Amino acid sequence: MEFQKTPGWLDWYSGPSKPKFKLPAGAVDAHCHVFGPGAEFPYAPERKYTPCDASKQQLFALRDHLGFSRNIVVGASCHGSDNRATVDALLHSNGKARGVATVKRSVTDEELQAMHEAGVRGVRFNFVKRLVDFTPKDELMEIAGRIAKLGWHVVIYFEAVDLPELWDFFTGLPTVVVVDHMGTPDVKLPVEGPQFQLFLKFMREHSNVWCKVTCPERLSVTGAPALNGEQNAYQDVVPFAKAIVDEFPDRVLWGTDWPHPNLKKHMPDDGLLVDFIPHIATTPELQKKLLVNNPMRLYWPEENV
Ligand code: 0GY
Question: Does 305 map to a domain?
Fold first, then answer.
């Protein structure tokens, strides 16, 4: 099937620089996607955007170029609840990738078990209205109860303004809960302000909540290296991400978000994104937790890293 990508959508950056920051041995890119290719794994009819293809081979080449050892492949909304592209990437990764799926209530226990064997370890509940249609909370809670039995976790993606309304649902989830992109703070607001403080309270009061300190390129208003000089890259995001890493060093994850869906103004150089890491995790100890120990504990617990 032929797919035309959504107008205005930037292609992923095909010549990323080599990072200056040397990742610790065994580092995990804990948030990335594969898109299609559409001819092999068609995009879902209910999708809100059509991406450009981004294959498993291209993802694995980026992993090696940047110096990561493993990937966590998160099923993206353009594939709906069809997890074939994600599972195919896991099965062809030589054990170097695990994943997060999107499922509906109608998923069978056999399908969940097959995904588990392929390396899926979580489901994602997406509340971002521009990306997905509404799913009733009772359906999501039922799914959470079922996947909890497999030892999986729930990844939540939401807009910061919606946290108050979603709070009771989130805090009722029976699993580890991993928040995408720091709960998408408005970085024009102060770190000390009520929006971000509510997010910190959410993490403080619930020890099962983890956070991906990801997507400076999505959250930044001051901008990217090319606009702003590398030293200042995404500088407005630093205080938010650093506050989370400093306070919750054992519950943070980092990922590239390659191939960066839905970016229309700026497409990051993934090498420079890696160079952002030491600004938010400022010691070798914090970097090792963020990039190795935490993702390994969540996704490969049997390896006892
Ligand atoms: C991300 C962010 C986005 C998209 C998706 O599933 C998705 O389509 O996650 C976004 O547009 O903010 O995590 O890749």
Answer: no
* Closest ligand 1 atom to Cα of 257: 14
Report the separation in Å between the CA atom of 63 and the middle of ligand 1, taken as the mean of its atom positions: 19
Atom of ligand 1 nearest to the CA of 130: 11
Q: How far apart are alpha carbons 25 and 305 in whole angstroms? A: 12
* CA-proximal residue: ligand 1, atom 3 (nearest): 261
CATH of residue 225:
3.20.20.140
Contact call for residues 70 and 30 (beta carbons, < 8 A): no
Q: Is residue 13 part of a domain?
A: no
**CB of 256 closer than 6 A to ligand 1?**
no
User: pLDDT tens across 231-249, in order?
Assistant: 668 999 999 999 999 999 9
First-residue to last-residue Cα distance in the chain: 43
Assess contact for 12 and 259: CB atoms under 8 A. Answer: yes
pTM summary value: 0.97
Residue 23 lies in a domain: no
Q: How many domains does the chain have?
A: 1
Please write the tens of the pLDDT for every residue from 186-212: 999 999 999 999 999 999 999 999 999
Structural domain includes residue 266? yes
The rounded Å distance from CA 304 to ligand 1 centre is 30
Q: Which domain holds residue 191?
A: 28-300
